[in-house]
Amino acid sequence: xxxxxxxxxxxxxxxxxxxxxxxxxxxxxxxxxxxxxxxx
Length: 40
Description:
Structural class: mainly alpha
Shape: elongated
Largest sheet: none
Oligomer: single chain
């Protein structure tokens, strides 16, 4: 059970780091949003 909880914390931390990295490059976020919007 502790391994599962530790894995959850590691995954949550990785997700937060990815979000932080995305805010450092707003042009990348806009490009991805535009590509996603183009699918609809």
